[in-house]
């Protein structure tokens, strides 16, 4: 593959072909993912250090050179908390994408190709799960759990991500399976399994990837809602939703500690949606050309 | 494989019918088709779009995609029944004994896989060769279908190739494993006229070179001329005329065949000659007419044609047709005269064209 041999020019060309908003979105996503992964190695303050104890900082401070985004009601550095909080949001949403596209995507592609009773059973299950409002089901599952660690939350959100991916993958697999090249592959005696893995799945993949970017944004909001209700990963681990909730009580004094985590969430969601949309449109253009 | 007797036909289709269970009721797209293809020969299958040619060629190989399909009858390949074979058993026939070339080369290659990979994987699957040998054989194949710079072509994606190039690649894949029968379903319909001829000549050349037989499906009788030994004309799922190519062109027995012949532009006619377009549409297969399916569009149709299905009959020159009033008989001239004086529009339309081309017949 050309792409693997020399990735940088290819990536640069891809970047150059993006509209401005998509460029900004990509930069935002790359930056926040990078910061979240390497947070421990970046010159960040301890996200749980309360500066007012030693008289170093005040509570609800505005932005300054010392605290780039100010401090919260316990005088903790908001900039650092945003980045550590991103770890939770991004991990949950990453697990959801992986579980959704690997399990849901494969299942959907499989049943869309093989059809029959298995398809009916799988899709009925999917429809039942999707019939519940996502947040309600999530709340129900989470309240059952004793511990609300990052692992537990990720597993639950990951599990709930499977059905929508299954649906998207099946719909695409249905239409791909009817394309002439799949029939042509069958007509030259290609085994069914090979047809599935070589013809159907690679052609379903782009639409799953486009969906994954948009769905990842949804998961971030979902985890945020959970955290806002105090049901996500528990303190002292910072979460965006938890930060919003905590800053809520001082909202009459200062808006800033609410705006910072909200902004982080909004920009991330917006960036994922913009990039996801662009990927989807590009896929359509390419699909039409083929 | 059976060691078949020397006089067993390569392909023998008997009473093949295919019905789709549609929401509007059963739709019989192929209806009681009989066809015999000898080794080394080419069979032309002609009919306008929607007449069931594609369904027929896929039915023979159990390649119909929908689950609501029912195929009856018998298809014997080298004396072996194909319709009762399981999918597993068919897998060693598809692409190895019998290959297909499809209508639209733009969609019949996997868009996300390199041309070479598609060729190589196919060869390796059927012939069990190593990667290197398969690649060499693949390049050889591409060369044999006259693809320039075959080594370079192995590493491109289908969308980087022209339509003609892609069809050559499809043909190379179809030829790869030494099939004895090639079914080409409108292999040139989606291509430019100049490319059409190259592809048809290529198919013809390869067929001879590899001692294969071919079923050449087309909606254009002009494609068949000079390339097929026998022709079967299909209308509304039935074969309405079967003859060797010479006889069919010289003395068509079925008015539909005649109309098809008149709709081909010919070099030996003056440039201003009007071409006949067959008025009306083929019948709705979910609601087939009681009598001959062509009767509503036929210039010769009489009452019997509208009410009774004509059986297939054999004529003195060996051709077969399903028609109550075969062309070239006094009855057919009378029928035409009668329809003309009654002012039957289908007849008038044809007569107008006929009179401007009075020299044709
Ligand atoms: N999967 C299907 N379900 C229902 N009807 C079908 C299906 N496939 C083909 N047909 C019908 O069969 C008839 C013959 O189609 P086809 O064989 O594609 O015609 P041709 O190849 O001669 O143009 C058409 O009327 C079409 O509507
Ligand atoms: Mg067709």
TrEMBL record, chain A:
Major subcellular location class: membrane
GO biological process, one term: transmembrane transport
Keywords associated with the record: Cell membrane, Membrane, Transmembrane, Transmembrane helix, Transport
Location in or out of the cell: Cell membrane
Matching InterPro entries: BP-dependent_transpt_permease (IPR050366), MetI-like (IPR000515), MetI-like_sf (IPR035906)
Positions in coiled-coil regions: none
Cellular component GO terms held in the UniProt record: plasma membrane
ABC transmembrane type-1 domain residues: 86-276
Residues annotated as transmembrane: 20-39, 88-113, 120-144, 150-169, 208-233, 253-272
Name under which the protein is recorded: Unannotated protein
Organism, scientific name: freshwater metagenome
TrEMBL record, chain B:
Signal peptide: none
This protein's UniProt keywords: ATP-binding, Cell membrane, Membrane, Nucleotide-binding, Transport
A biological-process GO annotation: peptide transport
Localization per Swiss-Prot or TrEMBL: Cell membrane
ABC transporter domain location: 11-261
SUPFAM superfamilies noted in UniProt: P-loop containing nucleoside triphosphate hydrolases
NCBIfam families from the UniProt entry: oligo_HPY
Name of the protein in its database record: Unannotated protein
């Amino acid at each position: 593959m050309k792409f693997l041999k020399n990735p940088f020019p290819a990536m640069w060309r891809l970047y150059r072909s993006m509209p401005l908003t998509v460029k900004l979105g990509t930069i935002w996503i790359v930056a926040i993912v990078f910061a979240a992964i390497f947070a421990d190695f970046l010159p960040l303050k301890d996200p749980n250090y309360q500066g007012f104890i030693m008289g170093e900082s005040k509570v609800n401070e505005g932005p300054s050179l010392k605290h780039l985004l100010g401090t919260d009601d316990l005088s903790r550095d908001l900039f650092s908390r945003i980045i550590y909080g991103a770890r939770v949001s991004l991990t949950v949403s990453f697990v959801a994408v992986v579980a959704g596209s690997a399990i849901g995507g494969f299942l959907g592609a499989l049943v869309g190709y093989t059809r029959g009773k298995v398809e009916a059973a799988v899709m009925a299950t999917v429809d039942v799960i999707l019939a519940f409002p996502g947040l309600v089901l999530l709340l129900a599952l989470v309240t059952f759990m004793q511990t609300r660690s990052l692992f537990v939350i990720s597993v639950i959100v990951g599990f709930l991500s499977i059905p929508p991916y299954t649906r998207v993958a099946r719909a695409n697999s249905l239409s791909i399976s009817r394309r002439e090249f799949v029939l042509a592959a069958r007509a030259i005696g290609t085994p069914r399994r090979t047809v599935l893995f070589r013809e159907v799945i690679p052609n379903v993949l782009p639409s799953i990837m486009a969906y994954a970017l948009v769905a990842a944004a949804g998961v971030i909001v979902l985890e945020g809602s959970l955290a806002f209700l105090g049901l996500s990963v528990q303190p002292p681990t910072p979460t965006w939703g938890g930060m919003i909730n905590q800053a809520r009580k001082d909202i009459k004094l200062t808006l800033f500690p609410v705006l910072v985590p909200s902004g982080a969430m909004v920009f991330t969601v917006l960036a994922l949606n913009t990039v996801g949309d662009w990927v989807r449109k590009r896929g359509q253009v390419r699909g039409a050309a083929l | 494989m059976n060691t078949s007797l020397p006089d067993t036909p390569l392909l023998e289709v008997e009473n093949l019918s295919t019905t789709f269970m549609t929401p509007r009721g059963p739709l019989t797209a192929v209806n009681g088709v009989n066809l015999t293809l000898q080794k080394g020969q080419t069979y032309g299958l002609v009919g306008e779009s929607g007449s069931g040619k594609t369904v027929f060629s896929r039915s023979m190989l159990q390649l119909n995609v929908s689950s609501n399909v029912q195929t009856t009858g018998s298809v014997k390949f080298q004396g072996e029944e194909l319709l009762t074979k399981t999918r597993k058993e068919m897998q060693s026939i598809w692409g190895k004994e019998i290959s297909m070339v499809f209508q639209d080369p733009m969609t019949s290659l996997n868009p996300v896989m390199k041309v070479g990979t598609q060729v190589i994987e196919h060869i390796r699957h059927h012939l069990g060769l190593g990667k290197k040998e398969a690649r060499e054989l693949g390049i050889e194949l591409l060369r044999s279908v006259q693809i320039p710079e075959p080594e370079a072509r192995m590493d491109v994606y289908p969308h980087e190739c022209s339509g003609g190039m892609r069809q050559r690649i499809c043909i190379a894949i179809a030829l790869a494993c030494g099939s004895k029968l090639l079914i080409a379903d409108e292999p040139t319909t989606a291509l430019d006229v100049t490319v059409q001829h190259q592809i048809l000549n290529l198919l013809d050349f390869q067929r001879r070179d590899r001692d294969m037989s071919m079923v050449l499906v087309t909606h254009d009788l002009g494609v068949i001329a000079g390339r097929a030994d026998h022709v079967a004309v299909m209308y509304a799922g039935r074969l309405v005329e079967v003859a060797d190519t010479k006889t069919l062109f010289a003395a068509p027995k079925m008015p539909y065949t005649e109309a098809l012949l008149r709709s081909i532009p010919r070099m030996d006619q003056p440039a201003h000659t009007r071409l006949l377009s067959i008025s009306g549409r083929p019948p709705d297969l979910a609601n087939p007419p009681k009598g001959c399916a062509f009767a509503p569009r036929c210039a010769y149709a009489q009452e019997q044609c509208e009410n009774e299905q004509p059986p297939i009959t054999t004529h003195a020159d060996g051709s077969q047709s399903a028609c109550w009033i075969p062309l070239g008989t006094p009855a057919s001239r009378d029928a035409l005269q009668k329809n003309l004086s009654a002012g039957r529009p289908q007849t008038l339309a044809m007569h107008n064209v006929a009179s401007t081309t009075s020299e044709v017949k």
